[in-house]
Amino acid sequence: MKNIIKYIYAIIISILYVSCNSTECTLSIEQIAQLKQIRFYKYENGNIKVKHEKEGTFFNDKLVGFYEGHVDLGIDFDKNTFNSIVSDNGKTVVINTKIIILNSKNGFITNQRYQEVGSFTNEERAQLDKEANEKILEECKNNNGFEEAKINSEQEMIKILKSMGFENITINFQQF
User: Fold this and answer.
1) In 3D, which of 135, 129, 133 has the Cα closest to residue 104?
2) 127-154 burial code (b ≥16 CB/10 A, e <16)
3) HSE value, Cβ hemisphere, 13 Å, CA-based, for 112
């Protein structure tokens, strides 16, 4: 498995080296050398709106959050979501992998602003942020983001593996 990953890195570095000038390539090659993840799909939404209201006898408070964000989907080589089996003849490879969310650690929101009428706590704003994160992830799922990432990753991995000399390539994806 580690040899396949090294070959994939080498091919990506070669493609980068040929496709850019030497000043720009130095940084890109260093970044690729540290590669641990590959993003195959990015779902973006710049128009997420979440609302919270508090009503009482003498007040009607409203908090509205406006958000921009994205969900990155791909393969993480460090999280055991990728392994391979190469046949004895070296022409057949079976890849077992899984598309995962790459940017879930810190949430999906990249920009937010609030409109407030009344007073709200930081906890209430944090709850609104949580709802916005859940909303963008649900939208990504409903818009076939995982399926798109699977298709893109399969196409790219087949290209890379064929350029490495493999003739029979099977890619199995675990459930999302």
Assistant:
1) 133
2) bbbebbbebbbebbeeeebbebbbebbb
3) 22
Query: CA-based angle 113:118:122, to the nearest 5?
Result: 55
CB 147 within 8 A of CB 43: no
> What element of type H or E holds 135?
helix 122-142
Instruction: Return phi, psi of residue 159, to 5°.
Output: -60, -50
Tokens of 8: 């994939």
- pLDDT value, residue 164: 74
Which residues of the chain, if any, have pLDDT below 50? 1, 13, 15-33
Closest CA to 105 of 125, 83, 76, 82: 76
Whether the Cβ atoms of residue 61 and residue 117 lie closer than 8 Å to each other: yes
List pLDDT tens digits, range 126-176: 999 999 999 999 999 999 999 999 999 899 888 877 877 788 888 888 876
The DSSP element (H or E) to which 130 belongs, if any, is helix 122-142
Which of left, alpha, beta for 104 (phi over 0: left; psi -120 to 50: alpha)? alpha
- Count the Cβ atoms, other than its own, within 10 Å of residue 93: 20
